[in-house]
Amino acid sequence: MQQFWNWKGYQIAWKVEDESNENRMAIVMIHGFGACKEHWRYNQNNISSIAPCYSLDLIGFGESSKPNSQLLYEKKRTNNFQYCFNNWTQQIIDFCNEIVQTPVLIIGNSIGGVIALNASQRLSKECLGVILIDCAQRTMDDKRLAEQSLLMRFLRPVIKTLVRQRLLSSSLFNNAANPTFIEKILKVAYPSGKNINKELIDILFKPTQGKGAEEAFRGFINLFDDHLAPDLLALSTNPVYLIWGEKDPWEPLKEAEQWLNTFECIKSLDIINNAGHCPHDEMPEKVNPILQKIIQEAM
Q1: Domains of the chain: which residue ranges?
Q2: pTM of the full predicted structure?
Q3: What digits encode the pLDDT tens for the residues 4-48?
């Protein structure tokens, strides 16, 4: 059942499913960029048979508030929001403390994975573990600039200047916020083509039509210096489990394999053959048993 929570004056949409009669722990699911809580459509109910399972819309997405973006260099304005990992993380921490009120295991897809790692560190013992599904590697971050081509390094200042402009960011957003474009992107993100259906397109398209939807897009494309997953993994004291689509077009499996061999906190890497960036939705029949096994071991 969907509910709303008032967080710092913003409305946050969330829902919980619970068929477990279990109250020792709960699951919190964090969606990726451009998605929402409904992106866990094939997972939340399945997992709820083991433990209460919560999903919520990050501010700027789904049915949560979409305030104007506040970039670092801009003059602070009342009710504007700085779309960044620390602020989204605070949303998750407060949600866990105020709504869930029990130790949690956090699942995050894409940028939701970075948020999950950050939140787990700050929740400390109140977090029992983290499951990263194709976690965002953020290759365009300033801290990874040396890995970029000479041309990209040369163009970076120009790109930064351009994407700050609302005229450009709104134009980019409006070109992308239509069912045809969304379906085209999904065919890249879901290489097998499985579960690309009208329901999924509607799930991703509907929030783009809400007032202020382009502001979260502007805030995100201006995140050039923020948290990187390896930095958070190096500090993690909680167990971390990786689930990765073999054919993810944006977050290469090769880097996830390097993480597995580098960070002691990572306990496993499950590869979903022929899947892309969102294997939990593309191939839930393969991902759900893995999720269930990890959760049961954490209990």
Answers
A1: 2-298
A2: 0.94
A3: 999 999 999 999 998 877 678 999 999 999 999 999 999 999 999
| Protein fold of 2-298 | Rossmann fold (3.40.50)
- Joined tokens for residue 203: 């799930």
Summarised one tens digit per residue, pLDDT across range 61-120 is 999 999 999 887 777 877 889 999 999 999 999 999 999 999 999 999 999 999 999 999
